[in-house]
Amino acid sequence: MKRLLKLQSVHIAILVLLILACYSSTLNNFFTADDLWHVHYAYRITNGDWALFWRNLCGNYIQIPGFDFYRPLLGLTFLLDYLLWKTNPFGYHISSILLYTGNVVLFYFVMLELSTASALDKRKKTSIAFWSSATFAVNPLHCEAVTWLSGRADVLAGVFYLLALYLVQTREKSRRRMFRHILSIVAFVLALCSKEIAIGFPIVAAAFIFLCAETNEKCALHSRLLKVLKPIAPYLLVCCLYLAVRYLCFGTIGGGYGGAFGIAKSKIAHLQWLDLGTWLRILAPFNLYALDKVSFLPRLYSCFICFTVLLAGIRCALAGVPGRCMVFLGVWFLSALLPLANVFGLDPLLHNSRMLFFATMPLSAVLPLL
């Protein structure tokens, strides 16, 4: 047990070093584009305009025109940053990197639990958790979410989302099941108050309980469904209340970008879903502008991916794979994509990659699990 804990500590330390290697050079970046909206909003609140604070709790996020976003918790993080750092961007970037580190570490523990559900030995499950988390930590699609302060909604929501999922995974093992269940519901609420994409969490939690929970393994189908419905019901109730709040705030349960930009985005969304290049960029996320002089790298990486998938296919045929876990990852991936119906897309420069932050969680686990 002590050796396992020591190994996990080493893994977490390596993951933190990977994050610092990727993002420490961005700490001295200045505010970019929309970042100034958040800073100015916090400035106005701290200088006496507290009505803005209450409007953010019961209306559109910092009253940005054309945005039907309900993200009160996100505004609070920028308010806290302003109280600590005023207009020094260094502190704001520290906060974003710390939130991202929380995502990576929580993802490590989520993958430990998922690997345990595959009945793998301790050495294999820690290896899977580490390589999944390392892949997640260095994914280029996370650059916007971590380094662009306006993209913080994803890393903020991700912390509470992964915490809620981990508590669902470990609830049955704990002596304080009810406490963990309540804490998971609270974490889900905080994720929803950070970014709307967390709305898919009940689907992911239900999929884990149905497919991977040890207590469901020997149950009949109807018994498994009943065991899923009871713990998931509170999350569904939270979703209904959340949608009611959105309706009261915006007059619709939907949301996203409005105005001319939102209309233009939604008109081409279906083309992005059918664009093979978009899907290839998700699997091989290279910014072609940044790699202008080393354009062979995307091709080399694509060959590596194809070769790895071939080896994984051979392994599937010869040794079998933890099928339930792979199905769970598929459900998780779809639940992260469906809320992006009208804004899905990824161009050669990886614009809007922050929107795929949640989708990269299950993707990061596929190859290590195979």
List keywords for this structure.
370 residues, mainly alpha, two-stranded antiparallel sheet, 16 helices, globular
Number of extended strands: 2
Following the backbone from N to C, one meets helices and strands in this order, namely HHHEHHHHHHHHEHHHHH
Gross morphology is globular
Q: What's the Cα radius of gyration?
A: 21 Å
Oligomer: single chain
- Summing up helix and strand content along with how strands pair, one would put the structural category as mainly alpha
Overview in brief:
The chain contains 16 helices and two strands. It has helices spanning 2-23, 35-46, 51-57, 72-85, 89-117, 122-137, 143-147, 152-170, 177-192, 201-211, 221-250, 259-273, 276-283, 296-319, 323-337, 360-369, and strands spanning 67-68, 256-257. The protein starts with a helix and ends with a helix.
Structure description:
By secondary structure, the protein is an all-alpha fold. It contains 16 helices and 2 strands. The chain has helices at 2-23, 35-46, 51-57, 72-85, 89-117, 122-137, 143-147, 152-170, 177-192, 201-211, 221-250, 259-273, 276-283, 296-319, 323-337, 360-369; strands at residues 67-68, 256-257. The protein has a two-stranded antiparallel sheet. The radius of gyration is 21 Å and the shape is globular. 34% of the residues are buried.
